[in-house]
Amino acid sequence: MSTATTLSSQDVIALAKQHLIGNYTRYPVCLVRGEGSVVWDAEGTRYLDFFPGWGCGILGHCPTRVVEAVRDQVATLIHVPNTWYTEPQALLGQAIGERTDFAGKSFFCNSGTEANEGAIKLARLYGKANPGPNGPRYKIITMTNSFHGRTMGALSATAQPKYHAGVEPMLPGFLYVAHGDLDAVAQTIDKDTVAILLEPIQGEGGVNLPPTGYLEGLRALCDQHKLLLMFDEVQTGMGRTGKWFGHQHWGVQPDVMTLAKALAGGVACGAIVAKPGVAELLKPGTHAATFGGNPLACRAALATIETIEADGLLERAERIGERFSERMTALQDKCPLIREVRARGCMIGIELVVEGAPIVQKCLERGLLINVTHQTVLRLLPAMNLSDELLEEGCDILEEVLLAHTV
Ligand SMILES: Cc1ncc(COP(=O)(O)O)c(C=O)c1O
Predict the structure, then answer these.
(1) Cβ(145)–Cβ(179) under 8 Å?
(2) Shortest CA distance to 87 belongs to which of 294, 333, 330, 275?
């Protein structure tokens, strides 16, 4: 009953179709085991995974230090609520704070959307503590093609109508501005505005890098109007881009940052990280999460950070990004399907002139797992410890599939 690997893939798929809510589009593949950047299905088919855990598997599958830390912790203390102190949570707060440039203090939760919900509340608390002429400030500016999560607050912040369809009305107080347009942000700020929330590099929106001067300009606007600059680093955080946090490429400090996905190397964990002076607005009674910062997740996160540091993976992530770019840019000369290659460390987008779904399907048939976002952007979020050998193997498959594709 408790062993997940006794059934065939077809049996599992049939069972899932009968008993699970069908809200996901799934490939007919049942994965049972993973090691690094390789996963296997129930029948032993091997897949090279360039999208491990939708960005959660920053160290690939079952990284040794994380497995050992979780094994040790699970037999010691799995979960206690936040009415008590635990060493792993305190140490994780310290480890994150030391890696920020703003002495960030942490609140822990379980996912990206939950982290953003808390950040939205924090912005409103800030607006109450620092009101405008009309009273508490509450409006938050977000960017077109952003993605902040699926719960109602984070979804309202997500400036993509397709995700709102069917569950309107959205939470009031979010103003959407064209991504990259600093003047539009300046014109949108009014007396009720309290914060700007954005991903330093948009992920789901198509791996969109910020235009030159954009993040710096937003920081200046926030300083001028006493707004919080809030970076959603759920996808870009924890070393993925070659720095601990994506915004560090531009030297622009946020007031608040959210983390999740890779934070605990594949174990559920999220965080709000706020600078001193803002962090204190989350007082007892304002916010909480029962599972947030549990010892298991925090030990996994500490082991993830330790691995990234001990194995020099920030540098490795940069190298991986450079090599992907080299290969895909060279391919662009031979392959008219590629419009643009955008990469920062292990966050890679290959924009095509055609729909990407058939390419993803053909890669799957060849044993390579990748993703497509915004119809035309192939998205790769490979592990930071991907070996040269597997990197070249995956690029070879992608190259062959792209070259063979006829429109
Ligand atoms: C930038 C960003 N923020 C928030 C989220 C939501 O995270 P979660 O699915 O853990 O709620 C995602 C998920 O893809 C994301 O990419």
Answers:
(1) yes
(2) 294
